Amino acid sequence: MPKLIDSLGHLMENPWELIAKDAALEVVQQSAAKLVLVPGKLWNAEKAALLSTGKTFGVWLDSNETAELVKADLATLPLIALNFPTFMDGRSYSTAGVLRQQLDYTGEIRAIGDVLRDQLFFMKRCGFNTFDLKDSVKLEDAQKALHDFTATYAATVEDPVPLFRRRA
Hints:
The chain contains 6 helices and 8 strands, in the order E-E-E-H-E-H-E-E-H-E-H-E-H-H. Strands 2-1-8-7-6-5-4-3 form an 8-stranded mixed β-sheet. It has a single domain, classed as TIM Barrel (Alpha-Beta Barrel), CATH 3.20.20. Helix 3 links the parallel strand 6 (79-84) and strand 7. By secondary structure, it is an alpha/beta fold. The protein starts with a strand and ends with a helix.
């Protein structure tokens, strides 16, 4: 069962069905799920057909895709998930920052993929507010990770004022 927590460390149910990257429109149409998380390319290619199903859609972007892919639809998307194919691929941190700071996206940004305990504190600072954890991650450790540090130096989405300005 997927493990999902929010940026405060609360456990959450995950009502969203994640559609595979290479799935066809028919997979979504045949799904019984009401909340569906589709790949960005499928969303852009089949938006009208998807919306005609009456389901609610979120979009997930792979690490090599930018926020520009969904820019026109941000007002109607309640969830954008950003994939971390490996823990070493940090491009989705930047995408989260662009969504929050440049495109003013206020909906849910979820980290999916290879999401590990040690990344959670910084993911939260970059604008993520839910985390779909790998099965190997202990929930108690993940909840603690969101509060690993009491002070931060750099400016981020969470606190745009750097420490030296906060102390002045």
